[in-house]
Amino acid sequence: YTEAWDADKKSIHVMPDTPDILLAKANATNVSHKLYVQAWEEAKKKGYDMRADAIPIKTAKASRDIASDYKYKETHEKEKGHYIGCPSAKDDPKLALAARAMALQNDRLYKKAYNDSKTQIHIPVDALSVQAAKECQNLVSDVDYRQYLHQWTCLPDQNDVIHARQAYDLQSDNVYKSDLEWLRGIGWLTEGSVDVVKAKKAQELLNDRLYRTRPEQLKFTSIADSPDVVLAKTNAMQLSDV
Question: I need a surface site. Which of 138, 167, 189, 232 has the fewest CB within 10 A?
Fold first, then answer.
């Protein structure tokens, strides 16, 4: 049953220009390590020519000399025995330099000149800083900030000064009440004043006796021939025992 199918499977032929075959070949080319390094391998077979005075060679040599510990210590090794036998430490440049650096780093010596001269400061009275401090003190001083009205700091005959004086006289409480000075000490009765009359009117409005009139105080006269009076008299006569 399967003999024909097995024989047919071995005879299948796929065309080489189908999209799947082309895609598979392209993928194989992209992932091939041999093709990836083929250009590099061919360049290595050709060799290279680099001269000794090329800029990269000189840069590498300079970097190597700088990084070399031997080149770094070469000057020190040459100068090791040159300073042996100095008569004193002051004659040795290295020791003198170290002493100078130590003196500069010493805090007491660093502040010695300042401590000696900080109590000997003489500032002239017309220095800019002193003048600025005085001006600042005048600005923040409450005494100089307040200028009383009678202490004029401008010409008295200026128009704005005259106008200010007139406005001040109009607003002054003393000038405002000066016309009432002649009334001071004169006797005066409160009867007839506005406050007294107002109090009396308020009392009259609140007085219950004046507001309401009692019935017994009203003058009333009954009519003798009114229907209700005549009826009352007739009823009285009919009910009288006499």
Answer: 189
**DSSP-assigned letters across all residues of 131-156:** HHHHHHHHHH-HHHH---TTS--S-T
> What is the distance between the alpha carbons of residues 139 and 136, in angstroms, rounded to a whole number?
5
Q: How many whole angstroms separate alpha carbon 51 and alpha carbon 57?
A: 8
10 Å CB burial of residue 92 (0-12, 13-18, 19+) is middle
| Model pTM score | 0.18
**In the chain, count of helices (H) and strands (E)?**
16, 0
Helix (H) or strand (E) holding 46: helix 38-46
Question: Over the stretch 60-97, which tens digit does the pLDDT of each residue have?
Answer: 888 888 888 777 788 777 877 665 566 676 777 788 88
CA nearest neighbour of 149 among 132, 167, 125, 175: 167
